[in-house]
Specification:
mainly alpha, transmembrane helix, 3-stranded antiparallel β-sheet, 3 strands
């Protein structure tokens, strides 16, 4: 048992389990079919790259780190403008009820229609991303964001037009909600994903909370239409960056290089894991000058290898270069004889399509997320991420009831500023997730004698549960007591706690799915997004009705919501303990094949 994670009784190696935090006294050896292991030796201790980069310079894992970070940054910034369309009406509820001559609940439904568009579009876009890559979806989504944002601003007094625009705004947002996190899995090895995944989750989920702060002031000064026009303008500025600097991140890599997805029953895998997980304790050492070098040791972008400090450890029982060296030891002749393809020209990277990425059936891919919903790990991820996001939307909808109405009678400016606490909470959640995600995984891997289990990512559920439940249990009574002169900052503070928990939970569930089921990550993110958007859509329709049933009292409602969330967080304990055995079971009993969608 590794730190409470039960070992599997059937498979010697379970997909997802790997060694990526290496001890320099135990250099790794590869086996037939995986001739050498590339390591990142830029840090104090070498880290085996998981998955292993190929020798193709067009493999995203071989791109310079600055290039991969630039792609992540551009997609994240565009995702901020895309997802800001979700809460863009939060501070304008009163203004829109007057402009469209409708009730509060009808304005809330406009947010619901946006969420509905995101959820439905994900079913079609994600299979497309799996088959033909993500670039065409990112570029197309940015163009559609420009068009639909301008449409929303031009709707003026036409409620039906605005509702239709909101649906298509959701469609335009879907590629960024569903595929940006998956692109992180394409671009980075396991040990590099934590802080980047926290950043992309902040962009997708947390950045939206800054929107109402600006929207209230913009509406007051120049009208609510300009909130949409500004989104169209900024998305127009992002379009050239997405088109010219975000090439395709999907890559068809040889399965033998996906060392985190190999199992003990795969070809050559038993020898591979025997060699890597049972390396000699104290192999004979040689100095760097004793190890012969060859210009073909590392194939790929030289800048990347210089920056990241890659090294490759050979298969041999002879003395090898110590793992702390950034100079690679010789590679076997079988590997050196393979000539890698030439590096693609810049103009080639601008193509919307560069070949199929999978030999799959589109309809089956579209149905896979529904099937995965009944997989325990993916169902857990839907609850962890979807419920917290749903409660956030729920609070945003009813916030108007408590702050725009009596006794405060706030206008759009004050209501917009109320989201400052939520934005601060998102930043705090990002910092906690970013600092703890990779650090905790590395520390627990070190305690586990260098063996990494994806279940170590579930450590983040602890701060999520603390922050999230404090926020949910605290929001109800303090919002009700506004009538008794409780400062508005108190319930808003609890709103910030809840949002911090939401961001941490989103990072935890995303990292676990990517690391434990990377081959199903795209479909996994799809069902997570569909679940949270359709749940949030339903909550926008029922929020005011539930308040009326409780005589506009939030306390009993949020006591129930907080208790539900607490139980969901505690469900992470059996997942942590039995997660490895579950990975083994579903690898040996293919759930997708059983349901005829593979």
């Amino acid at each position: 048992m590794g730190l409470g994670v039960l070992e599997d009784r059937v498979m010697e190696h379970v997909p997802g389990t790997t060694r990526y935090f290496d001890d320099p006294e135990r250099p790794q050896f590869s086996s037939e079919g995986v001739e050498g292991l590339k390591c990142d030796t830029s840090g104090r201790m070498p880290i085996i790259l998981v998955p292993q980069p190929s020798d193709d310079p067009n493999d995203p894992l071989n791109w310079p780190l600055w290039k991969r970070d630039l792609i992540t940054f551009i997609l994240s910034v565009t995702a901020i403008f895309a997802t800001c369309l979700g809460p863009i009406l939060a501070a304008n509820t009163l203004t829109l009820t007057e402009d469209f001559s409708v009730k509060f609940s009808k304005v809330a439904e406009l947010t619901g229609w946006y969420l509905f568009g995101v959820g439905i579009a994900a079913f079609f876009f994600v299979p497309s991303g799996r088959l033909w890559g993500k670039r065409h979806l990112f570029v197309g989504g940015t163009i559609l964001l420009i068009i639909t944002s301008a449409w929303g601003g031009a709707s003026r007094h036409n409620y039906a037009s605005m509702a239709a625009a909101r649906v298509f705004q959701g469609v335009a947002t879907a590629p960024f909600e569903s595929l940006v996190n998956v692109a992180v899995g394409d671009l980075y090895c396991v040990h590099q994903r934590g802080i980047r995944m926290a950043f992309t989750n902040l962009a997708v989920f947390g950045g939206a909370f800054f929107t109402p702060i600006l929207v209230g002031k913009i509406t007051h000064e120049i009208g609510w239409q300009w909130t949409f026009y500004f989104v169209a303008i900024f998305c127009g500025l992002c379009l050239p960056a997405v088109y010219f600097f975000c090439p395709e991140t999907a890559y068809r890599r040889d399965q033998s290089l996906n060392t985190d997805m190999l199992s003990s029953d795969g070809p050559g895998a038993q020898q591979f894991f025997a060699n890597t997980l049972n390396a000699p304790e104290k192999p004979e050492k040689t100095t760097k000058r004793d190890a012969p070098s060859t210009p073909d040791t590392l194939v790929g972008d030289d800048a990347n290898q210089t920056q990241v400090g890659l090294s490759e450890i050979p298969i041999s029982s002879a003395p090898a270069a110590p793992a702390t060296s950034s100079t690679a030891a010789p590679v076997p002749t079988a590997r050196a004889s393979v000539v890698p393809p030439p590096k693609a020209a810049f103009k080639d990277s601008l193509a919307m399509f560069n070949g199929r990425k999978a030999d799959e059936n589109f309809v089956k891919l579209m149905l896979r997320p529904i099937v995965l919903f009944f997989h325990p790990a993916f169902f857990w991820a839907c609850l962890i991420q979807g419920l917290m996001i749903g409660w956030t939307v729920f609070i945003g909808v009813i916030l108007a009831q408590f702050f725009i109405g009596p006794p405060l009678w706030w206008g759009e400016v004050e209501t917009g500023y109320a989201y400052t606490a939520a934005f601060v909470g998102a930043i705090v959640g990002f910092l906690i997730a970013g600092l703890l995600s990779d650090w905790s995984a590395r520390l627990m891997t070190k305690w586990n004698k260098g063996i990494y289990e994806p279940e170590f990512r579930l450590f983040l559920i602890i701060p999520m549960m603390i922050f999230g439940c404090i926020g949910l249990y605290g929001w109800g009574p303090t919002a009700d007591d506004l009538l008794w002169d409780i400062p508005p900052a108190i319930p808003l503070m609890f709103f910030g706690f809840q949002v911090a928990g939401m961001v941490i939970g989103a990072v935890a569930s995303s990292l676990y799915i990517v690391d434990a089921y990377r081959d199903l990550a795209i479909e996994g993110f799809t069902i997570m997004i569909v679940f949270k958007n359709l749940l949030s859509f339903g909550l926008t329709l029922k929020a005011f009705q539930w308040l009326v049933l409780n005589q506009t009292k939030a306390t009993p409602l949020f006591n129930i919501i907080g208790s539900v969330q607490l139980v969901v967080c505690l469900s992470s304990i059996p997942l942590y303990v039995f997660g490895k055995r579950m990975r083994s079971f579903y690898h040996r009993h293919d759930w997708l094949a059983f349901c005829k969608v593979r």
